[in-house]
Amino acid sequence: MSYIADTLGNLIQQTAFFNLTWGNYVMIVVACVFLYLAIVKEFEPLLLVPIAFGMLLVNIYPDIMMSVEESSNGTGGLLYYFYVLDEWAILPSLIFMGVGAMTDFGPLIANPKSFLLGAASQFGVFVAYLLAMLMGFSDKAAAAISIIGGADGPTSIFLAGKLGQTTLMGPIAVAAYSYMALVPLIQPPIMKALTTEEERKIKMEQLRPVSKLEKVLFPIVVTIIVCLILPTTAPLIGMLMLGNLFRECGVVRQLADTAANVLMYIVVILLGTSVGATTSAEAFLKASTLKIVVLGLVAFAFGTAAGVLIGKVMCYATGKKVNPLIGSAGVSAVPMAARVSQKVGSEADPTNFLLMHAMGPNVAGVIGTAVAAGTFMAIFGVF
Q1: With contact defined as beta carbons under 8 Å apart, do 181 and 47 qualify?
Q2: Cα-based distances in Å from 150 to 11, 129, 158, 249
Q3: Closest CA to 172 of 142, 148, 151, 143
Q4: How confident is the model at residue 45 (pLDDT cuts 50, 70, 90)?
Q5: Assuming Cys at both sites, which of 90, 177, 223, 330 could form a disulfide with 365, CB separation 3.0 to 4.6 Å?
């Protein structure tokens, strides 16, 4: 009987109930909320489901993120190896290749002025950088946090790893992906507050057709120009443009399909679960995390506002040929931000079609955020 009692006692002691802290239970609840938003509300489920589940796993079984050095048997936890691919900037770069293979750059080529709107939306990044410095973060930490303003999760992870801010990578990545998912809730109030109903009703002329030659040359030319000026952007810009070249050249359809579908979804699974697994209670429930979340929201709001305001300037400079709403798509949440521009515009006028016009600034925003990250890396001498 004593053997049975001891065995049952050992089994009970091995359950997670005796090893978790109150913080772990808080994070388990947060993970369940994220799962609810992803599954029931359908807020970017491809991102939130793996992130939330990674969060759930690490707070039930923390050893799943145990590093090789911490392990007694010389092997790390499963999600630790996924996370190493984040630190090495492999997964964020592959995500960019998938985005490039999925995205039509035609609207940006047809309307190069969209680059201005994509650049304007990076204003939030630099506002957040200054605010983070004022709140006591180091210069590198402030730079890593500020990229949240671009609503670009892969770039946020990439820059945090390059700048050695791995301790902040979890909160930064979760904040970035959360704001990407919440674009339909955050952006519309800002867009409506900064525009009149008359401006929101403006209809834009149909974009000119873009030739295949232009589409093939675009990723090659952008890679040469941007990477010559900022070589540190090569992993992101290079992969983005490689994926797009797969799509547009027409001779490697198998590679384009693989990058846009199978490889993309595999990488999303690995990146999402590993990002979620960085949010253990010990790492996440800190005052600095709350600051990061607030700074990310401020950066995102300023980026959206700057894009809309520059859109208004372009609107009146062109004799009301540009709808200012497309400026909000300058953040790099592709294609969600462009869809929000379309939604707000159609609310003012159901016959208004802004989606393709908004895709120009949206794609420009992806490039702009990568350039902002490369600029910070150049400033700090990181390669």
Answers
A1: yes
A2: 48, 12, 13, 29
A3: 148
A4: confident
A5: 330
Q: Is the separation of the CB atoms in 330 and 357 below 8 Å?
A: no
Average pLDDT over residues 340-367: 92
Asked if 352 and 345 count as a contact pair (C-beta separation under 8 A), the reply is yes
Q: What is the pLDDT of residue 282?
A: 85
pLDDT grade for 297, boundaries at 50, 70 and 90: confident
